[in-house]
Automatic annotation (TrEMBL):
Protein name: Integral membrane protein
Keywords: Membrane, Transmembrane, Transmembrane helix
Pfam families listed in its UniProt record: DUF6350
InterPro entries according to UniProt: DUF6350
Top-rank lineage group of the source organism: Bacteria
Transmembrane segments: 25-48, 83-104, 151-171, 202-225, 237-257, 302-322, 334-360, 372-392
Amino acid sequence: MTQLMGRPILGLPSDLDGRSTLSDLLAGVRTALLTLSVIAVPVFGLWVLAPYGDDTAQDAARAVFGLWLLGHGAPLARGPGAAPVTVVPLLLTAVTVVLLSRAGHRQARRTRGRGWIRWRSPLTVYAGYLLVAAVAVAQCADPQAMLRSRAVADLAAVALLAAAALGHGLWSGLGRPARLPRLPLPPALWPDGAAAATGRALAGWLLALTAAGGAVLAVAVLLGSAGQQAQRLGGGAAGWLGMLLACLSLVPNALVWSASYALGVGFAVGTGSHAGPLGTRLGPAPDFPLLGLLPADRGPDWHLLACAAAAAAAITAALLTGRAATRWTAAQTAAVATATALAAGPPALLVGHLAGGALAPGRMSELGPVPWQFALAQTAWLLALALPGALLRRWWLGRRGDGAGPVLRARVGAYRLVCRLAA
């Protein structure tokens, strides 16, 4: 009797033992609500501090849903004329990606079994997240909403971002089981370890280019008139807080714009206006503190020094590639450096697309860097500086004998052997 009572009344097979489908669905809903709370807390706080007679709690909730969709890269419309709003606040996007990736990482540790049993839990979490997205789109479909949704495009944007972030979390949680595909190149051009070296050089380039954009942005803050515009526009504690939060959410966008400035291609500030180190042409712009950082209309001058930051980022990639290239030949080093330059293009296209967009029809329909120019400039800088820099770094390390690879050591050993036999 004791043995019978010690057994569980209901036993489940090992393949089915785990969280229920409802629990996984609620986990996806909870993840979406957590990302929503990042926006809801400041928005409702501003609504409480500065209530207006024609704003209700439902209007504030619609604004939260609209900003949440915008953070996923979803295009929205504003005002009675349906003015397009496609500038993505990248800080909200980064927070969303981090939370979704962590959720995918947690689900990876709970997956059991094979086939459908293994993927049922992550897919259910994904469905729960999209359920909240459908509610957000429905709430913003009202013509009275400040930011109106476009159902198909918005759901597609949320689905793509959620799938990418959850997929990354699953991949990292499962220990990165899938190996990177090997390029169809002969070993004489693509040696072992080239993919890892390319990834390190690309990561170093992106981090250094972000730091370069931060340096350019810091100089613009010191020399610009953002503080004067903030003093003129701020009205009360709620106005100051709202302006501060808006500027903070767009700081990553400003970093991308500054990086594009350092690369030399610059960025658009409305139709027919352009800001770049080679020359700036500006027209009327909205009163906003970040736009007060733009330089005045001028021709090329000392602002060309901003390109030194992009050169430093390219040199960083060259040093990383050259350090790993001590085991390779010159042709292999050139192939890896070229692959790094080409690999920088796709992420630059995506980031350039998300960092810019439109805020209104007409003049404000073009903001931010042109994506293809932003991507092409990164590839050009890497080919112009990182490629010869990596070859020079490899030659210097080989000349000093630091980190000499098997090929170099074999040649030196053969030379010494021949000398001893000749003696």
